[in-house]
Amino acid sequence: MNKYLLPFICFGTLLFSCKESDKFSFYEEKVTPLQMEALPDSLSPPKIIRLSEVKAPDIFEITPTKIPLKYPYGVGKPTVKSYGVNDGLPGDLVQDLVLDQQGNLWIGGIGFLSKFDGSTFTNFNISNGLESVLISQLLVDSDNNIWIGTLYGLYKYDGYRFHQISLSEDDRNHNFLSLIQDQDGTIWASSQKGIFRISEDSVQVFGKDDGVPLGLYYTLFLDQSGRIIATSTTENYVYTNGRFEPFDKIPAIGNSHPVILTIDQEGSIWFRIKSGDKDQLGKYDGQKTSLFGKAEGFDHQERIYGAETTKSGEIWINTEKGTYTYKNGIFNFYSAGELDKLNFSSVVEDDLGNYWIITRNRFVKINFNLTNPLEIPEGDSDNLNNSIRLRLAIGPNGSKWVISSKQRSSLFKYEKNEAIKYDLEPVFGEGFFFLFLFADKNGNIWLSNGGNQNIPKKLIKFDGSKFHIYGVDQGIKMDFVRNISEDKDGNIVLVTSSGVYFINNEIITYYGEKQGFPELITSIVFDQKNRMWVGTGYSGAIAFTQDSVLKVNTSNGLPNNFVNDLTVGPNGTIWMGTDGGIGRIDGNQLSTFGQAEGLGSIATSIFVDTLNQQLWFGTTKGLATLSFEESQSENPQFRIFSKQNGFENIPSFLGTGEKIQVRSSDIWMNTFSDLVRFNWKQLQEIKSPSVKIKNIRINNTNLLWSLFLEENDSLNKLTVTNESVLKFSKKPEEEFLKELQNVFGNIEYDSLQRGDLIPINLRLPYTNNSITFEFSSVSPAYGKYFQYRYKLEGYEENWSPVSLKNEAYFGNMTEGEYTFKLEAFSPFGTTSKLSYTFKVLPPWWRTWWAYLIYLIMLLLLGRRIHAFQKERTIRKEREKAKDRELEQAREIEKAYQNLELAHENLKATQTQLIQSEKMASLGELTAGIAHEIQNPLNFVNNFSEINKELIADLKEEIEKGDMEEVKLLAADIESN
Question: Which of 54, 108, 531, 685 is surrounded by the most beta carbons within 10 Å?
Fold first, then answer.
């Protein structure tokens, strides 16, 4: 006990230096560094009491009484929830129910057929295509078709429309007793009109000529070998070689006829026989017959109404006195509460372990495994209210010990199917009651008590056979007890309003006011460094070593100075539950968590679960958990369980002082009025339910999607009618259909999904470019508690916030391909995903063929522009050439004029010479001169004539525009 000498030197100054006025609430994580301080040295040492030096504790024994439990031990009270008109069911007269392959629950009754996905009821009636809704039997076949037996015949619903199956010339006044499917996929039905075998293209009726008398009601079964067995109150038959033969495999028992109740998964036939004026339960396994009575655990034989085999192999038996279940050779009987005289007519088990049962013109959900209140004996279990306080202690061997503020003086221990009751009021007197209890590692039960002023406060230890009483005579002043626990060395830690006691078999060590302890201490633990941590009601938490102290309160980041609980977590971290949230100390850093992480503002208790590697927290939002791995994160992700998200027995507030305890995979918690078991293992085994799109609206308008199918035959008209009644609660009107066709007739898709009629490969025209998705999870038990997030790829990058919102709107979408992505988060931690791809088509002027036309027109325009440019260029070049030719022509004409002038001059000269010769009288000389002159003149004349011809040709070629010839002629003239 030397380690308990440490705290006395630290608490006086440092505890009272923390002020309540520093409290504050927090709403997001805050990380604060912490520092150790030096210890003061002014306090007294703790008080040491040696048990060998004081009076020995009083010891006494009590003879217990045994109280039978109404519910099986280890099972507890089942969780039962009823469904009726107030929940959306159209009527209360329920006749049958089935689960389809997607997980939807189908309920048939007098006046209605409903599909329930956990969020909403989808209701069908005569307007949907059923001629009768006086329903007696339902069946889901291997193709997920729903078969409906009604007073006016048999129907099949394929997810699009109802098909009537004609069984005879007159299909009225059927009272169907059975609908089953054999191994070949054939449907069998039975009514008072006979037994019917229904294949794809024919119906075969079996009557007297086929071995079965008419007028009897036959229940049909399929045995393990695939044979059809029919049973009535007088005879049993088996279908063989095309007819029914008497089935006498069950050995005769007296003169009583065995009426078959069910065939279990092992192939055994369960039956009832008359034994006098009572019924007796029997089983035939193919080799021998077994009868069940009181010795086998089947006590009540008055009247057996029926039996059902569930998916997990459990047998449910309906009797006049109550409900039995049978599994692994054990009968369990339920005679209390919702299961008392259940009188069920149908039992269906879903994938989550829930049983869906029709009883007393309603249907209920029953769960034995996920969350269950422990039965409190002698009336407490059925009449609890919030004024009753219950406390639980679980021993090292798993034994459960309970005290109740209703039976205040009694301690209960649970064994098998009974509770062992120890009543201490005769010992302590009237007015005695228990306050706290705790089970230590050795199996001892420690209790504290209250009472009137004549009842002394005691600490009581029960070792399994004797009670040991500690009090003032042993040095313990029992004022108000706040906590009883055990440290790692096996010492019992008793926290009272007057101080703290550490108790072992030899020594009691006491810390009180003289040792500096405050009046209100809530909890004490030792960490891996052997530091004592003390949680207080006003001063936060305090830890100390031999020479230093660490104060954690609101001044350095603790959410609130009232510490309800503290413990040592994985890797030596310290976790504190306060009236402001949760604190975590890792090394010298304090982190806080609260409403920002989804927790309540108050954390009441903490449990370190090393088996399941979880931290458990009681909060004002319910039960919270954090994995060891996640607990090291800077931003840990807490999971919350409460009635707010489907865990009906876990309240949203786990009160202060109500401790969480763990045994194996069972998490136990006190909830003021109940002791609740939470099956963590089963939760981990739950598979994620499916998620679906229930409806698509375009431009915020509900459409009849089946209206736009290409085929427009009579069957599709039935689909349109069915869809119209489901969406608009009325049959479609012609004017309304025309309006939908006019506005939305350009919508295209390939086909429709069965059930919810969702278009596949949807293609929207640009005028219908706003879309709304309605979605849900298919989980009848938990559907309304799912949360969702979504995004539309091609439209936005980010996911929506996680919420309960179950529809998404996207508007003004441009043309392109989009994918709607949806994630559904279940309350049990699984995630379901869905993707839906569709297209928005462009307007015609932005289609590919429009762009092709635009390209062709552009090419033609380019070609025309090119031709125009070429023609213009040629014209300009021609004009330039013509100008040059005209200039050259003018130059040639000028040259010609000069030649003409020269010619005229030569002529004048010639004339003058001739005249001169005439005047001269030189004969021969004149003649010679004239001859000499005539030769050049002839030369010039010749060239003049040639030039005239050339000029004429030149003009002609200019007119023709032959520039090359013009140039040649001009050159010839120039050379002349």
Answer: 108
User: Which pLDDT score, from 0 to 100, does residue 595 have?
Assistant: 86
User: For residue 434, which of 454, 460, 414 has the smallest C-alpha distance?
Assistant: 460
As a whole number of angstroms, the distance between CA 897 and CA 885 comes to 18
314-329 in b/e form (b: 16+ CB < 10 A) is bbbbbbeebbbbbeee
Where residue 494 falls (left for φ over 0; alpha for ψ -120 to 50; beta otherwise) is beta
Strands 355-359 vs 344-349: parallel, antiparallel or unpaired: antiparallel
**Per-residue pLDDT at 5:** 43
- pTM (2 d.p.): 0.79
Angle in degrees, CA 606, 611, 617, rounded to 5: 15
Q: What is the DSSP letter of 44?
A: P
Phi and psi dihedrals of 752, rounded to 5?
A: -120, 140
Residue 164 CA to residue 723 CA, distance in Å, equals 17
Regions of the chain with pLDDT less than 70: 1-32, 35-43, 72-75, 335-343, 360-361, 378-388, 546, 655-658, 711-714, 916-932, 936-937, 939-940, 943, 976
Query: What is the predicted pLDDT for the residue at 377?
Result: 77
Count the neighbouring beta carbons within 10 Å of the beta carbon of residue 272. 24
HEC-encoded secondary structure of 709-770 = CCCCCHHHHHHHHHHHHHHHCCCCCHHHHHHHHHHHCCCECCEECCCCCCEECEEECHHHCC
Q: Exposed (0-12), middle (13-18) or buried (19+): which is 10, by Cβ within 10 Å?
A: buried
In sequence order, the 6+-apart residues with CB closer than 8 A to the CB of 531 are 543, 544, 545, 550
pLDDT in tens, 518-565: 778 888 999 988 888 989 888 899 887 767 778 899 998 999 999 999
User: Is-contact 295 250, C-beta < 8 A?
Assistant: no
Q: In angstroms, rounded to a whole number, what is the distance separating the alpha carbons of residues 422 and 415?
A: 13
Q: Which residues have a Cβ under 8 Å from the Cβ of 406 and sit 6 or more positions away?
A: 376, 379, 380, 384, 388
**Residue 8 CA: distances (Å) to CA of 261, 419, 492:** 73, 44, 19
Distance of CA 132 to CAs 111, 161, 173, 487, 723, Å? 8, 15, 11, 70, 18
State the greatest distance between any 2 C-alpha atoms of the chain, in Å, as a whole number.
201
User: Which pLDDT score is estimated for 330?
Assistant: 87
